[in-house]
Amino acid sequence: MKNPVRRKKKVPKKPLNITATNSSAHPLSVIRHLSYLRGMSQPLSPEQLLTIANEFGTPLYVYHAEKITEQYGKLQQAFQQSNTRFFYAGKALTNINILKHIRSLGCHMDCSSINEVSLAIRAGFEPGNILYTSNGIAFSEIEEAVALGVNVNIDSLSNLEKFGKKYGHDYPVGIRLRPNIMAGGNLKISTGHGNSKFGIPLEQLDNILALIKQHDLFICGLHVHTGSEIKDVSVFMQVADIFSELVPDFPDVSFLDLGGGFKVPYKEEETGTDISLLGEKVADFLAKLSKTHQRDFQAWFEPGKFIVSESGYFITQINVLKQSGNTIFAGVNSGFNHLIRPMFYEAYHRIQNISNPNGPLHHYTVVGNICETDTFASDRQLPLISEGDYLVFYNAGAYGFEMASNYNARFKPAQVLVINGKPHLVSRRDVFEDLLRNQVEVL
Ligand code: LLP
Asked: The domain that contains 194 carries what CATH number?
């Protein structure tokens, strides 16, 4: 029997949409927002943050819309030479106003659950501009995504087989691969290595090809997300090399999705991923690939942190100061229930005492009020702290509020979005009834 992956192209029922939405085509709405062409947006100042904290109370997440615009603008600029689409990884922060703002820039959205897909639709993203990169999910969610008409990446042979049986050639689909590359800021956020649960291991390529042949699947894209906080551009290019080797086996592939994971600077002296260099390399890669195969390819990326991390500030207030030997514990009115990154990933967040930014420096161990070990920062030099002072945690836009919980029956913080200098409440602080909202009192 003739190998179906080599046969002449049949058109699938779901139309493909790879050229019309090239994000380097600057939709008008982006031009309107192009503050980055006029210079960087100013970070929110300690004075602005203090005013906002006084108005809305703490603990409080504050986001700065112009910073998000600036970050997206940087991507546009860095990748202007290549046919690239950006899908914001919504898992970083899903407030509906943030999603609407990101959509207004012309960015698309990557989702990791069917509920994120519904949020994307609610925020006004077109189904063709939504990507559902699945991971270990029930096939029923893939069916829901297909019914909504969004792009789907499948990450297991099991779901690929079910997909083949149900949709055959009719619905173009991408395949999430595991490249067996170790990269990322921390083992917990490294997804591409040889022991990771994510994606179909590359060594199972023959099984993938057999399923494609058996079910006449229309594979429109290949996907790899290697991890989060990848500074080294060569990691992305290693993935590009893998794609180059695979393309001959996938004649219908038009998009090559290199995932998210651009590093953002959390520490004072750090720099992030050199996206300009990456943009140049991706342009070269696509040009060479197109020349070799005499057809167009599009690069897709799914940045989360890069788009929202630096736009976010988490403001807390000092409840208690406690001296213990040489250590001064500065206890804030929050904990890992609100910002889990330091405890979970040993992540570093820059902290400032915005009530006394010019005070003399002392060493503090900043801790939370949760009833277990809850350290935000050890032995950190900060301007003199008094009880009642406001401490701000920087780079809190990504995976901050989004990973918050009600542990210890504490309320989740409110969220504020600053647009053109004006703060807007975009989600309320919990109230007591929220703690009981889904509970069923049977006694
Ligand atoms: N695409 C896929 C398939 C992903 O799994 C992720 C993140 C991204 C894109 C976006 O990665 P980013 O550009 O944001 O690095 N909670 C952790 C990060 C977990 C990332 C999970 N996947 C943290 O706070 O560091």
From this structure: 3.20.20.10
